[in-house]
TrEMBL record:
Upper classification of the organism: Bacteria, Bacillati, Actinomycetota, Actinomycetes, Kitasatosporales
Pfam families: MFS_1
Transmembrane segments: 12-32, 52-71, 83-100, 106-128, 140-158, 170-189, 214-237, 249-268, 280-297, 303-324, 336-361, 367-389
Keyword Manganese carried by entry: no
Keywords: Membrane, Transmembrane, Transmembrane helix
Gene3D superfamilies with a match to the protein in the record: MFS general substrate transporter like domains
Keyword Calcium: no
This protein's name: MFS transporter
Protein origin, superkingdom: Bacteria
Organism: Streptomyces silvensis
GO molecular function, one term: transmembrane transporter activity
Length: 395
C-alpha cells in the first residue's frame, strides 16, 4: 500500500523529533558503560571486593527490572513527554550523586540514575510507535540504537583516560555524560506543552500481556541479549587485564567491541528493509554471539576476533530486541505495556549476568566457567530470537 502526499509523514519524523529521540538515546547507556572500564580503579579506591563490584554492575539491571513495570501506568496517567522530562531531571541528579566521594553515594546515585534510564528505555518504543509511521519504525529504532552505541562506546573508551587526567579521578570520570542529559532535557521540555495524558482523554490503559507466548519470547530475547551485553561491558576489561592487558588497552578493546556492534546495528536496516519476519536474523545473530564467547573460552589470545563476533551478533540482537517492542504491538499503549514487560523480565534475566560472573570468578579464580555459562545462555537465545522474530502482534 503506497503512502500518498496527504499522509502526515513529515511531521511524524521531523528533524526536531529525530534529534530529540537521539538525545534521549545518548543517555541510555553512557552513564553505565564507563563503569566497567573504571571498575578496577573503583574497587581499589573504595575497597570493594569483586563480588561488590559485580553488585555495582548488576544494580542498574535490578533497578530496570523493578522500575520498568511502573512506566506504562505512569505514562497513561501523566503523559509520555512529561514523564520523560522528569526522568531526565532525575538522571542528572543521580549522575551527580554517584560521582560524590562516598561509597553510599556511589550506590545511591546508581539506583537513582538507573531508575531514570528505565523510564527512558520503556518510553522511547512507545514514543516511536505513536509518532513514527509503521514502515519507518525499524529505521528510527536502528538510528537511536546507533546513537546509543556511539555514546556508550565513547564512554568506555574515554573513561579511563579521563580518570587519569581530570581532578577527582574516577569520581569525575563517572559524571562526564551529564552534558547529554542536560541537552536532552532542554530538547524535550518544549514538547511537554502539547502532551496530553491518555487518562485525560478517556482512553483505557493497555494491560501487560503476561499470558502471551510471543510477549514472553520477546522478553526472554531482550533479557538474554542484555545479559550478554552488560556482562561484557562489566567484566571484559577485567578479563583482559587478568590476561596481561593494561587498563587503557582493555578500555579501548571494549570500545572496539561496541564500535563493531554499532556498525552492525547501523547496517542491519539495509539488509532487512521491508522484511517483517525476522526469525532467522534473530537466531543467526544469537549464534554469532555464542561463537564469540566460544572463542574467548577456547582461544583467549584471539580476543579481537571474539570481540568482533560479540559485536556483530550483539549489535543486531539489540536492534531487533528494541524493534520487537514496537513492531509486535498494535498501538502506542500496547507498545508501552509490552516494553514494560520485556524490559522488566529482560533486565531481571540480565541482572544475573554480571553478579553471577563476579561470584563464579571469585569462587574459581578463573574466567573459564563464567564464559562457558555465557556460551550456554547464548545458545538459548537462538531459540528465543527465532520465536520473537515472527511477524505477529501480541494479543
Amino acid at each position: 500500500m503506497s503512502v500518498g502526499p496527504a499522509v502526515s509523514v513529515g511531521p511524524a519524523v521531523s528533524v526536531g523529533l529525530v534529534v530529540a529521540i537521539c538525545l534521549v538515546a545518548a543517555n541510555l547507556r553512557t552513564s553505565l558503560t564507563g563503569v566497567g572500564t573504571l571498575l578496577p580503579e573503583i574497587e581499589r579506591g573504595s575497597g570493594l571486593t569483586s563480588s561488590w563490584g559485580g553488585l555495582l554492575s548488576t544494580l542498574p539491571l535490578l533497578t530496570f527490572a523493578a522500575t520498568s513495570p511502573l512506566v506504562a501506568r505512569a505514562s497513561h496517567r501523566f503523559g509520555t513527554a512529561r514523564l520523560l522530562v522528569v526522568a531526565l531531571g532525575a538522571l542528572a541528579v543521580g549522575t551527580v550523586v554517584r560521582s560524590l566521594p562516598s561509597v553510599i553515594c556511589l550506590f545511591t546515585g546508581t539506583v537513582i540514575l538507573s531508575a531514570a534510564i528505565a523510564f527512558g528505555n520503556v518510553l522511547l518504543p512507545a514514543l516511536i510507535r505513536r509518532n513514527v509511521p509503521a514502515h519507518r519504525i525499524h529505521g528510527i529504532s536502528a538510528l537511536y540504537v546507533t546513537v546509543m552505541g556511539v555514546t556508550a562506546a565513547v564512554s568506555s573508551g574515554v573513561s579511563a583516560p579521563l580518570s587519569h587526567t581530570l581532578p577527582g579521578s574516577w569520581h569525575t570520570a563517572l559524571a562526564w555524560g551529564l552534558a547529554f542529559t542536560v541537552a536532552a532535557f532542554l530538547a524535550w521540555l518544549p514538547r511537554v506543552r502539547g502532551d496530553k495524558p491518555r487518562a485525560a482523554t478517556g482512553a483505557t490503559r493497555s494491560a501487560v500481556p503476561w499470558r502471551s507466548r510471543l510477549a514472553w519470547q520477546v522478553s526472554v530475547f531482550m533479557g538474554l541479549q542484555s545479559l550478554a551485553f552488560y556482562t561484557a561491558v562489566a567484566w571484559l576489561p577485567s578479563i583482559l587485564i587478568d590476561r596481561g592487558t593494561s587498563s587503557t588497552a582493555a578500555g579501548w578493546t571494549l570500545f572496539y567491541y561496541q564500535l563493531v556492534a554499532l556498525a552492525a546495528s547501523g547496517l542491519l536496516p539495509l539488509f532487512t528493509r521491508g522484511r517483517l519476519d525476522q526469525r532467522w536474523t534473530a537466531a543467526g545473530a544469537s549464534a554469532v554471539v555464542a561463537c564469540g564467547f566460544a572463542v574467548l573460552v577456547a582461544a583467549p589470545a584471539l580476543s579481537v576476533l571474539a570481540c568482533t563476533l560479540l559485536g556483530v551478533g550483539g549489535g543486531v540482537c539489540l536492534v531487533l530486541a528494541l524493534t520487537f517492542q514496537s513492531e509486535r504491538a498494535g498501538s502506542a499503549g500496547e507498545a508501552a505495556a509490552l516494553a514494560g514487560m520485556a524490559q522488566s523480565v529482560g533486565y531481571l534475566v540480565a541482572a544475573a549476568g554480571p553478579l553471577l560472573l563476579g561470584i563464579l570468578h571469585s569462587s574459581t579464580s578463573s574466567w573459564t566457567l563464567p564464559l562457558v555459562v555465557l556460551l550456554v545462555l547464548s545458545v538459548a537465545m537462538v531459540g528465543a530470537g527465532y520465536g520473537a522474530g515472527r511477524d505477529r502482534h501480541v494479543r
